[in-house]
Amino acid sequence: MGLDVLIVDDSAAIRKILQRVLVQADVQLGSVLEASDGKEALDKLKDTKVNLILSDINMPNMDGLEFLTHLKAIPEHKDVPVVMITTEGGQAKVMEAVNLGAVGYVRKPFTADQIKEKLVGII
Amino acid sequence: MGQMPDKHDAGMGQILRQRVDALAMRLVLANDDAGTAESMVQEVDALHRVAKMEGLRELAALAAELVAKARSSGAPLETLSEGLLRMQKALAEGDRRPSASGTPAAQSIANDPELIADFVLEAREHLDTIEGHLLALDKNPEDLEPVHAVFRSFHTIKGLAGFLNLDPVKDVAHEVETLLDLAREGKLKLTPGINDVILASTDYLMRWVKHLESGGIAGAPGPLWENQTLIKQILACMPGNEPAEPAPAAEAPAPPKTAESAPPPQPPPSTPLPAEISQQAKSEPAIAKSGPGRSVSVKVDTEKLDYLVDMVGEMVIAQSMVSCDPDLQANTRPRLARNLNQLGRITNEVQRVAMSMRMVEIGPLFQKNARLVRDLARKFGKQVVLETEGENVQVDRQIVEELSDALMHMVRNSLDHGVESPAERAAAGKDSTAKIMLRARHDSGQIVIQISDDGRGLNHDKILARARRNGIIGPTATLSESEVLNLIFQPGFSTAEVLSDISGRGVGLDVVRKQIQKLRGSVDIRSVQGKGSTFSLKLPLTLAIIDGLLVTLGGDRFIIPIFAVRELLQPKPEMITQVDACAEAVMVRDHLLPLVRLHERFAMEPRSRKPEDGVLVVSDVGGKDVALLVDEVIGKQEVVIKGLGPTFREVAGIAGGAILGDGHVGLILDMQGVFGARREE
After folding, report:
1. Chain-centroid distance, C-alpha B514
2. Which of A 78-97 lie inside 8 A of B, CB atoms?
3. Which of the residues A27, B44, B314, B612 has an alpha carbon 20 to 30 A from that of B360?
4. Which contacts qualify for B46-49: CB closer than 8 Å, 24 or more apart?
């Protein structure tokens, strides 16, 4: 059975790239959900469960940190591993995200090997 | 690319160091209670996880050990103090293993044309919005929302560029993002000088987008790769002594504040590719701007513009003639049909754009009146505020120009006659400050401009009495409410008890109405005594094109402006009555409307003299319904109005000519003229 993943990023192109990188990293993907911000992500999670969430931090409407806070308050989703996607210069926010319960982070751009390494032990 | 893991580690290491230092500091000030200790242990645990992910093994181990120890210790604060010290040492020694091997992003992603196309699309969208946000910021520097939006744009571009190995793009976007991050945290004020640098960066990124769009590849170095001067300028904008992120400084140290960074920074170096010179030229005035209201535009002689619009009109007609050609109508080849359709679509689009070039916002016209109201109110000792609505409604430039005087006259009229003195208003229980409203809006293909006041309103009886006295109407005439109000547009009418030097300059409202009719518009009044009046002007969107009802008479065709048309009906002989020797009327649903037979008006031979063989076109002329008898109605058609030249300019009842879809000429009827002329006869 594949891994159901939710990818949260306001850039459609980045969502597409993330998906490809996951495939390159030999992650067996089940269904892949996409959301362009935290709000939409929470909406998508209303009637479905996923095994992994990759989320950007800087997004309009609801950013990654607020999304994480909300997510952790939902009993059926609070244990889903969330990996934050960050960029150079975004380290300070990563600390906050980890404090909020993110299991890890990867920095854009990342390679298949890098994400594989991050995902070991998470999934 | 190869250096990035180091940079990354250095940045993260710095953050970890700050956190550990902060924890150590907190410890010194901490109260000795279990809650404080636990919250600090949790933070150490978070540090442990981050250090582990970062590949800082020793630090991670120390943190993990500390968490375990502190939780089982009888004196957790002391254990923490000891452990944090060890962690500080470990960090100071810089003990770290290089993180994930720095293999470059997979080539398959970086070179994927589909992903590059996605990048071009998204980056272009972001870059297009940045300018607007920065302009909003120039106007209202306190508003942080545009800063957030621009930040996110650069953030996304940076992220994408990283995956696509577009290092020069990524680096510039990164530096601007850092700058904007400072701005959104209130650590940096975005001055116009800084905004110029951000715009210059936007231009630089746009050149990349265009380069990629035209099939250029990311990997081949060229003039576009030169971004150091630009990066230096961006760095020069940062507050000198408190860089938020140490990372960028490692590679390109910020120049000392004193030497190079005298604000505002210079525009970026001109390194245009041959094909991009025009783009560069476009961006230069943008950078050189000093005042507000910057917009990239070109001045064009209005004559040229009108000629272009005229020619586009001809092109539309020619296109429709080609596509209606019987030879082509019989065509069965799909390729030709497809190409003709394509031509039709393009022609329509060209026409739409050409028409929009004539359009200007009505705002400035309203503003002129604001000034007038202020000056006149002071002169009259009245208290008046002018409120406006719909200032961004687009109107044909010619209409704005020719409406200006009429509108000012009506505002003047409102202020003079409509608005009461403050004392009078107070006595009537009204706010002593009167309100005059100017509103503009689109309404079913027309522009509606309303001038309303909350003054005393029009006095029905006074108007009637004056009209009788001046012989405008007969002593026994009975008129509807709206007809009475419309009397004030009659020549020689004045409602003012005392002619003031403002309204009474010999220019009456009749002149205003004539001007509006000349613009193919109409004016209507609503008034409630004691509450105020509203003048509504209805005007066409543009003067170049008219939406017309195509009708025939004999072998000729005429066009009736469609906005005036109310209904079409087949008359029966018994509906028509002779009013006097030369006037007929037709009874339409219990209303007697003046009737004109078009063939009589123009002395032409109709297809049939029997009214029941023709069609009645009921139209609104100056607020009154009238009926025009024609032979046949062909349908609705948009036509480009052509002047008939000086010789025929004054022909009553004809507003112009138009070339119809089949190449024939049709005359455009001026309904006011058709019916007005009849009355004069």
Report:
1. 32
2. 85, 87-89, 91-92, 94-95
3. B314
4. B46/A95, B46/A98, B46/A99, B47/B16, B47/B19, B47/B20, B47/B87, B49/A98, B49/A103, B49/A104
Asked if the Cβ–Cβ distance from B118 to A13 is below 8 Å, we say yes
**Which residue of B53, B152, B245 is in closest CB contact with A10?**
B152
Does residue A17 belong to the interface with chain B, where contact is any CB pair within 8 Å? Answer: yes
What is B302-357's CATH number, 1.10.287, 3.30.160, 1.10.730, 1.10.1200? 1.10.287
Rounded mean pLDDT of A64-90? 87
**Cα nearest neighbour of B19 on chain A:** A95
CA–CA distance from B640 to each of B309, B559, B667 (Å)?
9, 11, 11
Among B12, B40, B121, B179, most A C-beta atoms within 10 A, so best to mutate, is B12
Chain A, nearest residue to B145 by Cα: A60
Which residues of A fall within a CB distance of 8 Å from B100?
111, 113-114, 117
In tens, the pLDDT along B356-386 reads 887 888 888 888 787 788 778 877 888 888 8
Is B497 a residue whose pLDDT tops 50? Answer: no
The interaxial angle of helices B167-184 and B228-236, nearest 10 deg, is 10
State whether ipTM is beyond 0.95.
Answer: no
Tell whether A23 is within 8 A of chain B (Cβ). no
Most A CBs within 10 Å, among B41, B112, B121, B152, to test the A interface: B152
* Burial class of residue B632 (count of CB atoms within 10 Å of its CB; 0-12, 13-18, 19+): middle
A83 to chain B, closest Cα gap in Å: 11
Of A12, A114, A117, the CB nearest to B122: A12
Say what the pLDDT of residue A39 is.
93
CB contact under 8 A, B159 and A109: yes
On whether the CB atoms of residues B147 and B190 are closer than 8 A, the answer is yes
pTM of the model: 0.41
Kindly list the domain boundaries of chain A, sorted by start residue.
Answer: 3-119
Inspect the interface and report whether the beta carbons of A88 and B7 lie closer than 8 Å.
yes
Q: B326-337: per-residue pLDDT in tens? A: 888 787 888 888
* Mean pLDDT, residues A23-43 taken together: 88
Which pLDDT score is estimated for B446? 78
Q: Any idea which fold A3-119 has? A: Rossmann fold (3.40.50)
* A34 pLDDT above the threshold of 80: yes
Output the average pLDDT for chain B: 77
pLDDT over 70 for what percent of chain A?
93
CATH domain B361-540 topology: Heat Shock Protein 90 (3.30.565)
- pLDDT tens digit string along B393-410? 888 888 888 888 888 888
Range name among B157-166, B220-229, B433-442 with the lowest pLDDT average: B220-229
At the topology level of CATH, where does B545-674 sit? OB fold (Dihydrolipoamide Acetyltransferase, E2P) (2.40.50)
Alpha-helical segments (H) within B55-191 = 57-72, 76-92, 107-110, 113-139, 145-163, 167-184
Q: Is the pLDDT of residue B350 over 80?
A: yes
The strand pairing partners of B388, in sequence order, are B438
Determine whether the interchain pair A91/B4 forms a contact, defined as Cβ–Cβ distance below 8 Å: no
A-B CB pairs within 8 A amount to 107
Pick the CATH number of B111-241 from 3.40.50.300, 3.40.640.10, 1.20.120.160, 1.20.58.100: 1.20.120.160
State the pLDDT at residue B294: 45
Contacts of A21 in chain B (CB under 8 A): 106, 109
- A11·B160 Cβ contact <8 A: yes
Q: CB–CB of B53 and A118 under 8 A?
A: yes
- Helix (H), strand (E), coil (C) string for B617-679: EEEEECCEEEEEEECEEEEEEEEECECCCHHHCCCCCEEEEEECCCCCEEEEECHHHHHHHHH
